[in-house]
Write a structure and sequence with these properties.
single chain, 51 residues, mainly alpha, 2 helices, elongated
Length: 51
């Protein structure tokens, strides 16, 4: 089993979790986006291409 972690998705995930610690509406929106991008990158679904 091979596990490859990219630096960008990991930083994005950590940043999203940290932003959630400061409750503001914009921060929630940005945090959810960063967490989603981080999870997609870590789980390897970032390789999907449309078109």
């Amino acid at each position: 089993m091979n596990l490859q972690l990219g630096l960008t998705p990991l930083i994005s995930l950590i940043a999203g979790i940290l932003i959630l610690a400061v409750p503001r509406l914009l921060n929630y929106i940005v945090a959810i986006y960063l967490i989603a991008i981080g999870l997609i990158g870590l789980l390897g679904a970032g390789g999907l291409r449309l078109g």
